[in-house]
Specification:
heterodimer; A: 247 residues; alpha/beta; Rossmann fold; 2 domains; 4-stranded antiparallel beta sheet; 10 strands; B: 277 residues; mainly alpha; MetI-like fold; 10 helices
Chain lengths: 247, 277
């Protein structure tokens, strides 16, 4: 689905991404974790085609990425809905078909995120969790093969967050979808992902790729996941010990 | 212990509510208090002839004058002439501001070409144009409408440009994800995002329009509310002047209310009470 070959995008202040290479298979859920400034979001912006100034190569289904791609949908950290549109119109926002077909499609995806009843509301009438559901529906309505999510639930309370994580899994089981999710919540990554890419350093590079081979549905306090978490934390910790004396 | 706390909290919540309700009705009273007092004092002063009526007529005189103008038809004809001028000026000024503002906001080259000049012209007081416009266009309708249009142009233009420049980059990125063309970006994101700014500009533009129509009618007119002002001055009839001022105030308020109503409809997504279903 997606190949990254030596992707680098380094900013003047030294943050960004250095020499990242990995492959993502169709249907996988990939988590990208790492400390702030290690280039998680940069990587996602490069894949999304919003930042085209990177070096190296990004391929989606063997085509190089040079800008936004119809196969790629994005859910941002903030919902980024158009406040002047209703929920339904927001979901249909990027669609290119006929008006009535677009609205029909938008209704379908609103149902999928459990907001069929809210289609006539305006953005300011939505809670944070509802708004992010609408954003997910909008991204899905364009029927992307690859869904990028940039810390999509970090602004939500713990319960809403868990609900939306389950929603992502539900949707992922319903339709063929590859997901790349940037997060700084290790539990979230472990609950959702097949593999977790740990970026480290400044600029960040791929440190370790953890396989999470636990059957879904996963319990949130699954023993295997807890062990994995210890492993990841250990890795993050080690990095800290090495970095600190230099600072 | 716990339940006592709960009661206290409930009371704490209830108090501001009560206070708000009480202040609501006394606010309405307060709004009418001063105007009523002014009217009463005004009527008293003029009724007791403390100020001669050739300098300050009584409120009843003013109402009488207005009523007389209404009956002989001069109120309506002067009013419609003035309103027509304001309307044409607003239309012309707003159209120019829309065209230039959109071009400057969307195209960098247009910004570089026009914006510095417009920013420089902005600092010229609008009424300083009066002699030049009269010289160029005489004292007919054209110079009047041009003057009003000039006054309306700047607030509308400045608000449109700052509205476009303030469009959330994050929303633009959403458009980019969907590979919007520049036209589509303008239509689906920039235009609706700028609309609130446009209305802010339009409302102050309309205020300036009414101000400038007075100036343009004072400088020479044979009809209009401003012409009534001149008549009143020349014939030492303060009742005509004040009647005209009252009409200006009414029309200014009315046009502002009209635009507010249109704004409310166009921007109903910002309205708290707009609950869809």
């Amino acid at each position: 689905m997606l190949q990254a070959r030596n992707v680098s995008r380094i900013f003047e202040n030294g943050t960004g991404l250095a020499d990242a290479s990995f492959d993502i298979k169709k249907g996988e859920i990939i988590g990208i974790i790492g400390k702030s400034g290690c280039g998680k979001s940069t990587l996602l912006r490069c894949i999304a085609g919003l930042d085209t100034e990177f070096e190296g190569e990004l391929l989606i289904e063997d085509q190089p990425i040079r800008g936004p791609h119809p196969q790629i949908g994005v859910v941002f950290q903030e919902p980024r809905l158009m406040p002047w549109l209703t929920v339904l119109e927001n979901v249909a926002f990027g669609l290119t078909g006929k008006e009535t077909e677009n609205l029909e499609l938008a209704r379908t995806y609103l149902r999928h995120v459990g907001l069929a009843h809210a289609e006539n509301l305006y953005v300011r009438q939505l809670s944070g969790g509802m708004a992010q559901r609408v954003a997910i529906a909008r991204a899905l309505a364009a029927q992307p093969g690859l869904l990028l999510m940039d810390e999509p639930f970090s602004a939500l309370d713990a319960f809403t967050k868990m609900q939306l994580q389950d929603l992502v899994l539900e949707i992922w089981e319903r339709q063929p979808l590859t997901v790349v999710m940037v997060t700084h919540d290790i539990d979230e990554a472990l609950y959702l992902c097949d593999r977790i890419v740990l970026l480290s350093g400044k600029p960040g590079s791929v440190d370790t790729i953890f396989e999470v081979d636990v059957e879904r549905p996963r319990g949130r306090s699954n023993i295997a996941l807890t062990k994995k978490k210890a492993e990841i934390l250990n890795k993050l910790q080690l990095e800290k010990v090495i970095v600190d004396p230099a600072v | 212990m716990e339940s006592k706390q709960a009661v206290q909290i409930a009371e704490a919540k209830a108090v501001p509510l009560k206070r708000k309700r009480a202040s609501g009705s006394s606010d309405t009273l307060l709004i009418f208090l001063l105007p009523a007092a002014i009217l009463v004092v005004w009527q008293l002063i003029t009724g007791l002839k403390l100020i001669p009526s050739y300098q300050l007529p009584s409120p009843l005189d003013v109402v009488g004058t207005l009523f007389q103008f209404l009956l002989d038809g001069s109120l309506l004809s002067n009013l419609s002439v003035t309103t027509g001028r304001v309307f044409c000026g607003i239309l012309a000024g707003t159209t120019a501001a829309l065209l230039l503002g959109s071009a400057v906001g969307v195209y960098r080259k247009a910004e570089k070409t026009f914006d510095p000049v417009i920013q420089a012209l902005k600092s010229i007081p609008g009424l300083a144009w009066v002699p030049l416009f009269i010289l160029w266009m005489g004292i007919g309708e054209l110079s009047k409408v041009t003057l009003i249009a000039t006054g309306v142009f700047f607030p509308v233009y400045l608000n449109i440009v700052s509205g476009i420049l303030n469009v959330d980059r994050k929303l633009i990125e959403v458009g980019k994800i969907y590979q919007f063309s520049r036209m589509k970006m303008v239509k689906k994101i920039i235009f609706p995002a700028t609309l609130p700014f446009f209305f802010t500009g339009l409302r102050s533009g309309v205020g300036i329009g009414w101000m400038f129509v007075v100036a343009s009618e004072l400088m020479g007119a044979s009809q209009g509310l401003g012409y009534l002002l001149v008549i009143g001055q020349n014939s030492s009839s303060p009742n005509i002047i004040i009647a005209s001022i009252v009409m200006f105030a009414l029309m200014g308020k009315l046009s502002d209310m009209l635009i507010k109503a249109i704004e409310k409809r166009a921007l109903k997504w910002r309205d708290d009470s707009a609950i869809g279903g």
